Model the fold of this input.
Amino acid sequence: MNLAIFLEQILNGLIAGSMYALIGSGIALVYGTMKVLNLAHGEFYMLGGYFTFYLTVQLGLPFWVAIPLAVLLAFLLGMAIQKLTIEYLIVRENWAFTTIAATLGLSIVLQNAALLIFGERFNSVPYYVDGVMVLGDIRLPWQRVMIFVVALATIAAMTWLLKYTRLGWSIRATSQDQDAAEVVGIPVRRVYMICFGLAAALGALAAAMLAPISAINPWAGIPILLKGFVVVILGGLGSFPGAIVGGLLLGVVEAVGVQLTSSEWRDVISFSLMIAVIWWRPWGLFGKK
Done:
């Protein structure tokens, strides 16, 4: 195998993995804080793609305005959904099962709503930046470079938020002990709502960045949700750093595996890696036993 081609595949794997990390970190954030497994997370990705499409293509807004607006819309929608549904379920008995059933139903509702509103057509968004970056024999489109830079900046911002802000301290305290957090005055319900909104925003951002190279359709959230679950299983369910590492690892393994085999084996490689990690370390790379 040509070394330059191999390095290109590694870089492409890191770029794809950075998007997987955004998806997985949203799932991990909700589960780590609320212990809710959100099966509708893929639909926030799908809606983020549609928001971006209509803001850029239909309304003609520049991408640097449309993407933050799409992320904001997804954030507000995520908070509204949590307030209207999940908040009333997590205080009941058997809430773990009821929240799974509710998010699964919500996923179906959002898919069908998107089908009715947007139709069956596969839509796409023009490239945000043109041209190719050349590093010796390695060539990468600037669009993919932009995706990677935005993903790294977002991950850094989320890490800073969780570690060094009052909101982040509240989220971490709530994830460790909800009752103790309430005793010291942390508004746990508001923390839950914000976490759900942040997870939706992360999914929407991933969709907005991938919109120029991936089709936008009502079913776009299904495959990305499956990859998100692979990521959180690799990193450890509920671990935010684990989701980031798991996403990057999955992207690189997929890229190298596809280069050695073919693109038809991509999902086989992903789920084989997941099964291997479950077999060797069921609690994930960063999870607790």
User: Anything to note?
Assistant: The chain has a mean pLDDT of 92. Strands lie at 132-135, 138-141. The chain has one domain: 3-280. The radius of gyration is 19 Å.
